[in-house]
Amino acid sequence: MQKPMLSSLTPFNLTFFLSSPKSPYLFPKPTATAAAAVTNFSLSHSLQSETLEILEWPSVCNHLSALASTSMGSSAAQKAQIPFGKSKSESQKLLDQTAAAVSAIAAIGSPPSDFHSIEDVSEIVNAAVSGKLLTINELCAVRRTLIAAKALFEKLKALASKADSNRYLPLLEVLEDCDFLVKLERTIGLCIDCNLSEILDTASEDLEIIRFEKKRNMEKLDALLKEMSSKIFKAGGIDSPLVTKRRARMCVGVRARYKYLVPDGVVLDASSSGATYFMEPSEAVELNNMEVRLSNAEKAEEIGILSFLTSEIAKSEAEIVYMLDKIVEVDLAFARAAYARWMNGVCPIFSSKDGKDLDNGGAEIGISVDIEGIQHPLLLESSLRSLSDALASSSRSALSSKDGNDVKMVYRSLSSGVSDFPVPIDIKIGYGTRVVVISGPNTGGKTASMKTLGLASLMSKAGMYLPAKSQPKLPWFDLVLADIGDQQSLEQSLSTFSGHISRICNILEVASKESLVLIDEIGSGTDPSEGVALSTSILQYLKDRVNLAVVTTHYADLSLLKEKDHQFENAAMEFSAETLQPTYRVLWGSIGDSNALSIAKSIGFNQQIIERAQDWVERLRPEKQQERKGLLYRSLIEERNRLETQAKMAASLHSETRDIYHEVL
């Protein structure tokens, strides 16, 4: 059986097989195509990793980490090693697992308690494989894990047997191929008492005989020494009978001046004052020798038993590692389910590529992204945490009052306590749309809305529910690539603009027809006319090469692209004219204003400056620019005609002057 690896949890992994049957080299030299593929994968991996950081995916994973039930699941989440589906079907399988876990938690009240007895024994297994002798505690840890893993599987099977449908099947399928090594677990149980952390007499026939003989020999030795100690006491050689062990041999205590009471005895030790000797009677020498021999034999037999159990675990390495891998998969499914219940999440569905999704009535829906009332997950977390803290104090008061109605009220608040912060937004994008241009004021929520879409795409791809209403729908994206924030690099001598363009260039290189591209403030940081020109060209390029691109901008010209191409769509961030504050809601199909003049007026700018600025705004509007270009063109034509007329008149006058001059001469 091939050794499975826990590294399959890593969201990005790819193996390239380069082969050449006639190559004289052990490792064939990579071709130019293969080298380009490796480079492209490396760039794609790098950009995707940076995007995860930009969208704060590790923060989402950290919250999952706290909800995981095993140390392995918690560690995987903490390292942001939550598995992403490498295809739409894989992501759907992850969502099905989450849905099954949600049902299980609803049925039993929490993730199965068996998770807590499952330990990360991978290091123990590695030690066994390397030849290190396992300790009793390590062997018991393996046994506990095997017992708990099987109990978890049995509990899920029991739940499934009571259910009317196959709702738990996605979780059972994860564990059904696992070998829970019942024989190995029983063997360890027959050899070791894990409650007392000792090897049992029945571990082997030889050990049982050795321990029986050791017990009988010790009984004889103990009886002999007690009789000798009693005689010494009666003779006044000690204050009270004393039988003890010194230098691994049993002996009696006697005052130094009464050592004659132990004739031919061997002094093994003396007290710190020298007043008491610890002596081995001659009659006890052979019995003590037998005790040493039997103890050595017992130790050797115990080592042999531990060695046998260690080798059995080493032989089962593949099965144990595979089982741990699958346990983590189920643990993360329950963590996702707990997260979904905590934020009142709903299960997303993936829209089809052909645009022929059907609603409940069987009618076709022409929307690729249809998400209603979604809240930014990380902003929602902080809000819910504050709500939980507030309700916790209420809960303590309710419990102390012993009023059942008060307690019910608190838990009803917890179960329905999704707050109005952050502001829920709707995201609705048609199937034909490839580029969405979001405009609006600074601090209006453009970037947060774009990040929300990016996180929603990652969460659904990883099998997570979304903090939204109804049933959110969005495409499955192979890559989510973002250029958000300041890309300035002093090490690479890149300005902010150069940093953005460099990153966008890389994004264009790796993006595919199934990718989502997010660009914040496209074309900013340079001359506005050149920024608009470059941005337009980039968006025209993207529309034919990605599934969806969403960009934010202050350039009004980019909003005009929709008029010429149906693959473009506009969106704006709503701004309240009454309060002069953003509402953080997205208006799809609208063009947003920066509202800079309204804000300037509200804070008391000079009215003449505001009016002059408003005049310039009117002049610089795109539609006014076209009108001005027409007027300028007509003005230039008229000027040219006027100059041509004057030139003809001057030429005629010059000709007449020459004629008069010649006549005079």
Structure description:
The chain is of the alpha/beta class and 665 residues long. 53% of the residues lie in helices and 13% in strands. The protein has helices at 32-54, 57-67, 71-78, 88-108, 122-129, 136-162, 169-175, 182-191, 205-234, 285-315, 317-342, 377-401, 404-415, 446-461, 496-510, 528-542, 561-564, 596-602, 607-620, 622-664; strands spanning 192-193, 198-199, 243-246, 249-255, 266-270, 276-280, 349-350, 357-358, 364-365, 367-374, 425-430, 435-439, 469-474, 480-483, 516-519, 548-553, 568-576, 581-588. Strand 8 and strand 9 form a beta hairpin. Helix 4 (88-108) crosses helix 11 and helix 6 (136-162) runs antiparallel to helix 7 (169-175). The chain starts with 31 loop residues before the first helix and ends with a helix.
Output the keywords.
alpha/beta; 18 strands; single chain; 665 residues; 20 helices; 13% strand
Average pLDDT rating: 82
Lateral strand order in the biggest sheet: 14-15-16-12-17-18
Proportion of beta-strand residues? 5-15%
Distance between the termini: 120 Å
Tell me the helix content. 40-55%
**What Rg, in angstroms, do the CA atoms define?**
41 Å
Please mark out the parts with pLDDT under 50 across 5 or more consecutive residues, or reply none.
1-30, 398-404, 406-418, 488-493
The assigned structural class equals: alpha/beta
State the total count of DSSP E strands.
18
Determine the number of helices (DSSP H or I, runs of at least 4 residues): 20
- Summarize the biggest pleated sheet: 6 strands, mixed
Shape: elongated
